[in-house]
User: Fold these one by one.
Assistant:
Number 1:
Amino acid sequence: MKGGSSVVYVCSECGREETKWMGRCPSCGSWNTFVEEKVVKESKDKTQAAMPIIDKTLKKLSEVKVDKAFRFSSGIDELDRVLGGGIMRPSSVLVGGEPGIGKSTIMLQMVSSAAEKGKVLYVSGEESPSQVKLRADRLKLNLEKINIFCDTRLEALVDVIEDLKPAVVVVDSLQTLSTSTVPSIAGSPNQMRACCYALSMLAKTNDIALFLIGHVTKEGTIAGPKIVEHLVDTVLYFESSDNGVRFLRAAKNRFGSVDEIGIFQMEEEGLKAVKDPSEFFISNRKENEMPCGIAYTAVVEGSRTFLVEIQALTIPAKSGFTRVYSDRVDTARVNRIAAILERHAGLHLSDQDIYVNIAGGMKINEVSIELAIALALWSARTGTVLPADLVSFGELSLAGEVRPVSFLEKRIKTSEEMGFKTHLSPSGQKVKGITPCRNIKQAIMIGRGISKDS
């Protein structure tokens, strides 16, 4: 081709390049993800300066000096929790989420607070400066210390960063950036990979905390090649629930745990941290108002513990095939718990459609909720109301045993603070205040109010 260019086919999921189109990617196994891209074989551009070697000198690890101010607060407690204690310098963070969920809002709030620690730069490739100012005014932020730059050219952005030398940079969004060294449209796998690598290396050499906002696909993953997630230090995902609560989770974090969760609520003045999550996930019920199919459990997300309400419903199947409807809990887990109830508790569920839900719309993967799901299903199927002050936590084995769970003391303390008096948990855990049970049959007997020894 003219100009020393050629055509390659790039997988939009993992970034693998092939010389011809393929139906299935050999690397990630995705189907129909290869897109045609024009590439330049030889290119020289000043953007190469944005991809330097961090340090050319060889030294002992013990000789490396760490700045005491390498971590500082973002001014948003829930964001600090998910990041592992605050913003790291240098670092690169990729933030993904659905449109309108609040990615730009929380980043604008963050740079306003971080402006007290040093210079900040907000790069907007999707909105004009006036649009960003209108949002900042609505959020009642301090506009004096926020620098804004609206250009999608990587070369221009590199020059601005090197001149300003900011402490924090937010790029909204990564898909809008492009560099002249990659002759393809913005948002293509090669463009995203090149821009992400250039900015990440620039952040490391200039002691910058870099935040990159990324779009997500219909599957909920960040759009673009997977290699982008490997290039950054932290990957955060924004999720929303049915009642408007936002959850911020870390899918990857080199500076902290990925088990932490940040909980926000969108208000007129932006995202506000939720101090007491339990109020969103359990209903305030009087004892005589407790319906069938309701059970409570305590879950641990990182350093915080809160109670959630498990809701279950069983109805006769309308066709010859039974179905399980469960958006917030893995359907395979619900099927397994139903099989355990049939085999070890004599509960007939094979002709029932099963519905399981978590109040508040939060997705939970913790194994400790299995006992509560079993009790909720039993309550819904038999029409028996569980005690209003009963909270349960335990993992179910295929043999019907109730197995121990971690952080039992934290779960009991939190449930007691919420007014729960009966704590149903596996036997063998020597913790004060629990009602022990060895298997699912005993747990159901206790749920009925019958002593496990009768």
Note: The radius of gyration is 26 Å.
Number 2:
Amino acid sequence: MLSLESIVAGYGDAVALSDVSLTIAAGELVAVVGANGAGKTTLVNVIARLLPMRAGRLTWEGADLGRLPPQALGERGIALIPEGRRLFGAMSVEENLDMGCYRRSARALREEGLERVYGMFPILRERRGQMAGTLSGGQQQMVAIGRALMARPRLLLIDEPSLGLAPSVVQQVFEVIRTVNAQGVSMLLIEQNVALALQVADRGYVLENGRIVAQASASALLERPDIRAAYLGGV
């Protein structure tokens, strides 16, 4: 479905990604893991067309995405859950969710989409009229996930979903990620919590200093001594 070939990208004179290649097949949950500053968010921003590539090729179902504006990705079934959630704080929960179904095809299924989101996150039904900026961090992440699901995506780009959340909330969020993937939605999961990401993923890529240094099935990466030593405390 999604293919990146030899991507180079950066900011100003700095190169943040160098010769990065990866693929996501239909229905796969692929994790990109690595330390803070490895280039993970830069990678997802390139895919989401928020940052231009300097070189390389980005394709979705065989079509070149390299010159498309960010808003065109929604029409192709790609949605982003950004790092830090980026909600509209002065708008209600439901108004934020509505922002996800701006496409005509998704708008026609708005009520069905809301029921799906509220079924996954019952607390959001209770808070549907509350301003999003007054929610807890975990509840805001639920809204961010729900907003993306309202677009009825076939590929979800998820950037650091565990960031700043309590462990109990992180577990709930990752259970929803598992559930949505099991429903057939392909996913690219960008995550600093290596153990958690590889526990839910089918395959994984390790990003260091803007380069892919390892790729394998998630279970195989979890068993590698060098990965365990570098990211899992050697346990």
Note: Residues 1-77+156-161+185-235 form a domain with the Rossmann fold fold (CATH 3.40.50.300).
Number 3:
Amino acid sequence: MDKLVLITGGGRGIGAATALLAAQRGYAVAVNYTANSLAADEVVRQIRAGGGTAMAVRADVADEAQVQAMFETIDAKLGRLTALVNNAGVVDTTQRVDEQSLARWQRMFAINVYGTMLCAREAVRRMSTRHGGSGGAIVNVGSVASIHGAAGQYVDYAAAKGAVDVFTLGLAREVATEGIRVNAVRPGIIDTEIHASGGQPGRAQRLAPQIPLQRPGTAQEIAHAIVWLLSDEASYATGSLVDITGGR
């Protein structure tokens, strides 16, 4: 069976590292992006330069019509999906809950939760033996914030990632007899651009002393965990929430 993975938010950070590693492991890769086409195109260029197969595909994962169109494009141009990495996500600026707006919460859940669910639904429709598929694997990128709660920073982000945890557990059990494994990786403090998008570009290094390993993680370290969970080496893993946190 040819291996084909869709990685949402695949142009930067953990998504880009996962795309490059998956390509090295023999996957054809669909690199999803929302706005930054240059970053996604660069990931595709690097994969192709290494002899791999890749394409960039634009879609806002919070928009159902765009998600459906993205999957249809992948069907037509790359074939039947065998793996999905739900990596697209957002944080926001540091605020207490009593300072946050409904609009902020709606955006947070639309991308981090509904986007994950929409993409998983479309993947199941293609992978499940119930729908004529040959099985596959889904890895959701959560966050250890779902355990710690992110008090005084972004409780709404932590709550959204908590929903991803529960969705992972439920979906894993729902499709276990249909050839699909569903797991989640929950990173700790990782040195990627997501901190800058939340207004704290130096956050990862600033928090290093609070981490038992005394450093933030790298996108590549998370990518290795994700690609392992996609692989046959993880064939008995489903419904697992794998924390990669440096001990935090």
Note: The two ends are 39 Å apart (CA to CA).
